[in-house]
Design brief:
The protein is of the alpha+beta class. The strands form 10 sheets. Strands 32-33-35-34-36-37-39-41 form an 8-stranded mixed beta sheet, sandwiched between helices. Strands 3, 4, 5, 6 and 7 form a 5-stranded antiparallel beta sheet that branches.
């Protein structure tokens, strides 16, 4: 205890030397992190990390330093307070605060959520469906629907907690039970509870330290859930029998390989509980008869390194077990869809044999198959082609039908479709200019019915929002190796290409995650101020198919960074902006991208926003005790055991490569309880930038009660976004 006091006093002395307080009118001075040399040696290479001490979250000096950084950021941005409030008011004013989602039919109920003005969190509800009712009730006025039954009020559960998140929310097939889990810290460890929806009572038994998701048996007698190991890897699926203590729960699946994580779900047919075991490159699925929850699951296809697959079930008529739809990449880079009949009586071996596969949708070099939705009378195939997503209906007679959309840039995906016998397909459509739109598509004809478009309310003194006031463009930058990199862009109609417009360029580029065109109410505050908004679809993402992803990982990771720089330079050459008018933004692995481009092309940007940034990537990937590390080796490579990977990662890891060059202003935002990208990474990075680099200022803002996604309440999230946007606007004006 005495040593803790001593270190806290040392922190106070250190921070006071660079206190942001300036009663004499002097410019705020940043806190100066102590430099305590700490050596690490791998593959004969010794590295001195003078800020390694910041990794100790329980050290009072660490907390004092983070709080001092917050105070410095507040002091530096104090002059932006008015603009921040203005932008917050615009976000709030454009948002319909009391609103309902489009109800989804399941059994005899319509399920939906609603928000209430002044409340941070959603209220989850249902109302009884009338006999023969197929079209959801109207939600235009945002008020509770007739006969509403509140299942869960997030505001009541959150209470006064500064953070609240749901990890599971799943209703039993008969609609009588609700399994839900809560997190009040942001560390993504949830406590699972079960509520009886008929009596309104929540069972006294609680299950701590669970992960996302859960699944019921067909009769609701058993609940399957997931727990994590010491490295926060979801590795066990448990079975809980209703009416028994949680202490009696049994393990159904346990995954010992640290590269793999597990998940559980119930097929749409409700015939099988599905257990998915996945690594970055390999997957394996097990199925359990949902009517026999105490039985043993059976593997569909044994795992083979490098082969990924997912499974959907389509039941047959008159007791026929039907077939499995298997989306796989075995000999098919962009995946193909096959079917295989289920045996009437399952034997002891795998449920499927590739020798019995029947092709349903073959492999195409220009089309990445993303997912399959199985219904009683049809299939819905979700795919990606030429940088855009699409949906195709596959009919039982072998005919196919595309669902078309008119805009040049958009994103479409299946929505919530829990009814297996439905002939209506719920889908979500959005573009850079068109707000989130919910459609029902007739599975027989493909005809679309718009159910709801997210309202955008007019601000005082301004007209209604009109998508036609904006232009959307697809640009193509050319990378150093000649690869064309797509850019999605939106601006106000008539924006001149004279190099004078401010521009925000967003990027990600990892895990085959695609940053598809989408709508944002906060972004309107930038577009109103003359900004152009652009997304750089760099390699490492999935926008152009699996090869696009492969060309931006492990020993080709540097392509992600140079692609982004090529996009930035292309936008300048085309007159969309200028280097002193452009701000870059990215988060998580996109924060790694921000840190890398800050090192390789700092002159190209007026400012950089890095949110929960993975900027000390080599240090983290060297430590197998950290969350996600071993599972990430297939994404980044294994620097712990492979000296070539070590050298390659060290050459691009942002923290390792900070130099004395001039950097643009940088704003890093993180959360103390983030378990995916630890707060210490941006804390160390900002400390080293300030000690070694020139330029700036370099700002760090740490949410002291939040996780990877930042603040949880919607008003809190809007305020944080308003702060970031105000900083972006100010940086461009000041450049």
């Amino acid at each position: 205890m005495n040593s803790q006091r001593a270190r806290a006093q040392s922190a106070a002395t250190t921070i006071a030397a660079g206190s942001p307080s300036h009663p004499d009118g002097a410019h705020p001075q940043p806190p100066i992190a102590r430099r305590i040399p700490s050596e690490r040696t791998y593959h004969g290479d010794t590295v001195v990390d003078e800020y390694a001490w910041l990794a100790d979250k329980d050290d009072p000096e660490t907390i004092a330093y983070l709080e001092a950084e917050n105070a410095y950021t507040a002091a530096i941005t104090a002059g932006q307070a008015g603009l921040c409030e203005e932008i917050f008011a615009e976000i709030k004013g454009r948002t319909k605060e009391t609103d309902l989602s489009v109800p989804v039919r399941k059994g005899g109920w319509w399920y939906y959520s609603r928000t209430v003005e002044g409340k941070q969190y959603s209220v989850h509800c249902r109302c009884a469906a009338r006999p023969g009712e197929t079209r959801p009730p109207s939600t235009e006025d945002g008020t509770p629907l007739p006969g509403e039954e509140v299942l869960l009020d997030g505001n009541e559960i959150a209470g006064d907690s500064p953070f609240f998140s749901l990890g599971a929310f799943t209703v039993s097939p008969d609609g009588s039970l609700l399994a839900y889990s809560t997190d009040f810290a942001g560390d993504e460890r949830f406590t699972l509870r079960v509520k009886n929806l008929e009596t309104g009572q929540t069972a006294a038994d609680e299950i701590p330290d669970t992960f996302y998701g859960g699944a019921w048996s067909k009769d609701g007698s058993a609940l399957f859930y997931v727990t994590v190991d010491a490295a926060w890897r979801p590795y066990r699926v448990w079975r809980h029998l209703m009416g028994t203590p949680a202490a009696d729960d049994v393990i159904v699946i346990e995954e010992p390989d640290q590269r793999f994580s597990v998940g559980v779900g119930l097929t749409r047919s409700e015939d099988y509980v599905s257990f998915g075991l996945t690594s970055t490159l390999t997957s394996e699925v097990w199925l359990l008869d949902a009517t026999q929850p105490a039985g043993s699951p059976q593997v569909v296809l044994p795992r083979r390194q490098g082969v990924e697959y997912s499974v959907e079930h389509q039941a047959g008529p008159d007791g026929d077990p039907g077939r499995l739809l298997i989306l796989h990449n075995d000999g098919a880079l962009n995946f193909e869809l096959a079917s295989v009949p289920l045996p009437a009586t399952a034997g002891p071996g795998p449920l499927a044999d590739p020798a019995n596969f029947t092709a349903v949708a073959g492999h195409r070099e220009d089309t990445r198959l993303l997912g399959i939705e199985a219904f009683a009378s049809h299939l819905v195939l979700h795919y990606r082609r030429a940088g855009l997503t699409g949906l195709r209906i596959l009919h039982a007679d072998g005919s196919e039908q595309e669902i078309g959309f008119p805009e040049p840039l958009y994103s479409v995906a299946p929505g919530s479709n829990p009814e297996y016998d439905s002939t209506v397909i719920r889908l979500h459509y959005v573009s850079l200019a068109t707000p989130d739109s919910v459609f029902d598509a007739d599975a027989r004809t493909g005809e679309l019915t718009l159910l709801k478009r997210r309202p955008v309310l007019p601000l005082p003194g301004r007209g209604p929002y009109d998508p036609d006031d904006f232009e959307q463009h697809r640009e193509w930058a050319v990378a150093a190796d000649g690869t064309q990199i797509p850019i999605s862009l939106i601006c106000r109609k008539g924006t001149a290409r004279d190099g004078r417009s401010p521009l925000l360029l967003y990027g990600y580029g990892s895990y085959e995650a695609s940053i598809d065109p989408g709508f944002s109410i906060p972004r309107l505050s930038l577009l109103d101020r003359g900004f152009v908004y652009a997304i750089a679809h760099v390699r490492g993402g999935g926008e152009m198919g699996r090869r696009w992803y492969d060309d931006g990982k492990v020993f080709r990771k540097r392509n992600t960074f140079t692609d982004f720089v090529a996009c930035a330079e292309h936008l300048v050459k085309q007159g969309w902006t200028a280097t002193d008018r452009m701000v870059a933004r990215g988060g998580s692995a996109g924060g790694l991208l921000m840190g890398a481009v800050a090192n390789i092309a700092p002159q190209d940007f007026a400012g950089i926003v890095a949110q929960v940034p993975f900027v000390d990537s080599l240090t983290s990937i060297l430590d197998p005790s950290l969350p996600l590390t071993v599972a990430e080796w297939e994404e980044w490579g294994d620097p712990l055991h492979d000296p070539k990977v070590y050298a390659y990662m060290k050459a691009y890891s942002p923290y390792e490569n900070v130099t004395s060059q001039r950097y643009p202003p940088i704003l890093a935002v993180t959360s103390l309880n983030d378990t995916r990208v630890l707060y210490r990474e941006p804390a160390k990075w900002i400390a080293r930038l300030r000690a070694t680099g020139q330029g700036g200022p370099f700002l760090l803002k740490t949410e002291m009660t939040a996780g990877h996604a930042g603040r949880s309440g919607r008003y809190d999230a809007w305020r944080e976004e308003a702060m970031i946007l105000a900083w972006i606007v100010t940086v461009v004006v000041s450049a």
